């Protein structure tokens, strides 16, 4: 199996038969529905959990695992991050979708080919994702991760092209 990547967090129990309330990234319902096995970390050990059912309710996923059949068993895993293979998640990505972990560390260039900085993180503001770009003077600038401002991402070449409009990222001499 490839490296593991987080896909959600067990927040609490739901009902009395061992269903869990799972927090996940909104818009990834199809990805979750296509999973059959995930891993939870408990005592520094990955525990395999087999999904028997999943439904979505009020912004959360309600998941039943074959291995969990009571509230007490859920409570033992409450707060656990769930993981799946990175290759599984990568195969489910749509065009122009990227894993946050793949974007961190990428070089950022303007449309003229000038290196502006490096992506140090990705955050969300409710409307869109934001790239945190650290430039040579060690200041960080947020770039909305939208096609109009970020026309090109090349994971293989470790290169992101940004349309550097006035005030977005200062050009340093």
Describe the structure.
The chain is mainly beta and 173 residues long. It has four helices and twelve strands, in the order E-E-H-E-E-E-H-E-H-H-E-E-E-E-E-E. It has helices at 29-33, 71-77, 86-92, 100-103; strands at 4-14, 19-23, 37-42, 45-57, 60-65, 81-85, 107-110, 115-124, 129-134, 140-144, 152-154, 159-162. A six-stranded antiparallel beta barrel has the order 1-2-5-4-3-6. A six-stranded mixed β-sheet has the order 10-9-8-7-12-11. The longest helix has 7 residues, at 71-77. The model has no long low-confidence stretch (mean pLDDT 89).
Task: Provide key terms for this protein.
single chain, 173 residues, mainly beta, 6-stranded mixed beta sheet, 4 helices, elongated
Overall number of strands: 12
Strand content: over 45%
The best one-word shape is elongated
N-to-C CA distance: 46 Å
How can the largest sheet be summarized? 6 strands, antiparallel, barrel
| Computed Rg | 19 Å
- Number of DSSP helices? 4
Class per helix and strand makeup = mainly beta
Strand order of the largest sheet: 1-2-5-4-3-6
**Percent helix:** 10-25%
Q: Any low-confidence stretches, pLDDT <50, length ≥5?
A: none
Please state the oligomeric state of the protein chains shown.
single chain
């Amino acid at each position: 199996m490839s490296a593991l990547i987080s896909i959600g967090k067990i927040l609490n129990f739901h009902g009395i038969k061992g269903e869990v309330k799972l927090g996940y990234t909104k818009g990834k319902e199809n990805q979750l529905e296509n999973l059959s096995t995930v891993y939870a970390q408990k005592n520094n050990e990955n525990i395999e959990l087999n999904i028997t059912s999943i439904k979505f309710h009020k912004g959360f996923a309600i998941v039943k695992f074959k291995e969990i059949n009571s509230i007490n068993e859920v409570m033992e895993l409450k707060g656990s991050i769930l993981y799946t293979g990175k290759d599984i998640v990568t195969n489910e990505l749509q065009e122009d979708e990227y894993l946050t972990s793949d974007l961190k560390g990428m070089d950022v260039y303007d449309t003229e080919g000038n290196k502006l900085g490096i992506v140090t993180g990705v955050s969300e503001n409710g409307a869109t994702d934001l790239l945190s770009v650290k430039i040579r003077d060690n200041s960080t600038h947020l770039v909305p991760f939208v096609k109009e401002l970020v026309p090109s991402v090349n994971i293989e070449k470790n290169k992101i092209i940004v349309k550097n409009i006035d005030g977005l990222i200062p050009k340093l001499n």
